[in-house]
Design a protein that fits this description.
This is DUF2975 domain-containing protein. This protein has 156 residues and is mostly helical. The protein has one domain. Helices cover 85% and strands 0% of the residues. Helix 1 packs antiparallel against helix 2, helix 2 packs antiparallel against helix 3 and helix 3 runs antiparallel to helix 4.
Length: 156
């Protein structure tokens, strides 16, 4: 349980840092771009480039926050509970969406990127998708374990 608590605290620190980063992006890049309609001729998405980066950051934040909530449910209610199962599934969904949007964003902006950065971004997006799918698998393990635990409790 100590490792789960450590992971929960680590995700809390990452989420706080990500919230600060998103507010900075919103305040310094997104809002001024939308207010002044700044035209980026060198960007494939133009004025909306920073907005899309901000929205992708929100997807990541929600995915990590749901995962953090799933860990908190494990700490409070034990490993086999429906709350953590649901939170891990939702966290996995948001992480998969973040990875898919990362691949799409990477393909759209490929002319702006060097080849090594393009490949690195692509691999990172694939990795995030795999982590999201891993959370789906973990949720299924929790569900199956909960069913087995319930059956075991009924037989005793």
């Amino acid at each position: 349980m100590k490792k789960i608590r450590l992971l929960h605290r680590f995700l809390a620190i990452i989420n706080i840092a990500l919230i600060v980063l998103l507010f900075v992006i919103l305040g310094l890049l997104v809002i001024p771009d939308l207010i002044f309609q700044k035209a980026y001729t060198d960007k494939a998405l133009g004025t909306y480039n920073h907005l899309i980066i901000f929205l992708r950051g929100l997807l990541l934040l929600v995915g990590l926050f749901k995962t953090q909530q799933g860990l908190m449910a494990i700490i409070r209610n034990g490993f086999y509970n429906t709350i953590s199962e649901l939170k891990f599934k939702r966290g996995g969904l948001f992480l998969v969406l973040f990875g898919i949007t990362g691949i799409i964003f990477n393909i759209i902006t490929k002319q702006e990127l060097e080849l090594n950065i393009f490949i690195t971004n692509f691999i990172e997006s694939i990795f995030v998708i795999l982590v999201g799918l891993g959370l789906f698998i973990l949720a299924d393990f929790i569900k199956s374990g909960g069913i087995l635990k319930e059956e075991n409790d009924l037989t005793i």
